[in-house]
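Lecture 7 notes. Example A: sequence first, then its structure tokens.
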Amino acid sequence: IIDGSQFMIGSLMNLGSWIIDIEAYHKKANNVTYYPFPRLAPGSDFFTANHKMKGIDLLVKKQVNRDISLCIGYTLSESTIALYSASTIYYHDKFSQPDNVTLGGSYVSDRWKLSVGWRFASGLFGRSVSILPVLNNLRNAPPQPNGMPPPGAMGPPNINQTLETVPERFDPVHSLDISASYTIPETASRNW
């Protein structure tokens, strides 16, 4: 049975044309069930893990005039995982991106709204809990006479060299989002 908890504290300040929002959080999810292989295999087992996430979010928004607003956001977070639920050793989660920065703006004209946002996120952990056990198994396994990976290791013969080159953290991610929307006017026959 999955159980969890979430605690948050924050503040929202409206200072005229400025809005400042800050929040801190701590989340736990226990007994999350995983299947360790890419395909279902006879005789293989599921395992459970516990997750902890904590962080702080900051958003600053400025209403420049009636039509234009700008914002900047920053998130500092940590996501960790403990395998097999009984373990108290937590590892960095594969999808943990500690630093996230967002810059955005919007322009409203009559019924049209144009929004643009740029996001930067630090790269995913390369040597996460998903890769380290496989890499350790390959390092500690006796050499195979045919050059193939040791039994239980999935992948091509050169998987050991491939995994050795995995960086501590992958490259950062940048994204640009652009949207335009139009509000349909209400009429006497259509009030939506």
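Example B, a different protein, same format:
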Amino acid sequence: DFERPVRALPVGQEDVMKAKRADRFLNWQFTNEIPMFEVADKVADSSLVYGHAIVKGRYVRDINVLKVKTEAGMISKEETAFDGVKLDVLNPEDVLFPGDTTTDNPDDMEFIIHEIPTTLSNLRRRQASKTYKDVDIAIGAFQERDDRSDDLRQERYLYQGIDEQSVTMSSNVPIILEWYGYYDIDGDGVEE
């Protein structure tokens, strides 16, 4: 439905009004600021080539910092360039699902990994905007990884049938592994 592409459903009775507001906002955003026909075209293309399409929805707040000259001197002024939802149609070759999954519902999967090659300046910008937290950048040593990223990389190689010894990682291009899954963040025994 191109007139109302999003449905925000309440979880409990206390969420009914919030869901109605979210429904109105998201549908306005999708019909006015997201090129739905372009997204639909990319989804159809990916589905024909790969047999499926992966669409990543994300909330984005782009801020431009302007330098303004005043009587008191130069000051920095923040201006919101975009504040809302963006959709990305991902290349399925950059997304890893568990090899033993029997569902196509992402909520029922143990994890989903999105591999994103990036630039050092883009990585720093995402850190400054707090999109990425707790990222250590070792200049000229991107091949240094922690055990968790090694485990994710090994899982990817196993899934793709690649011999890990035959792969040489380029130290010039940082690769971000965005891991989506349930994890006990606060140590209470419940995975969030």
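Note on Example B: Helices lie at 16-32, 36-50, 120-128, 147-160. DSSP finds four helices and five strands in the chain.
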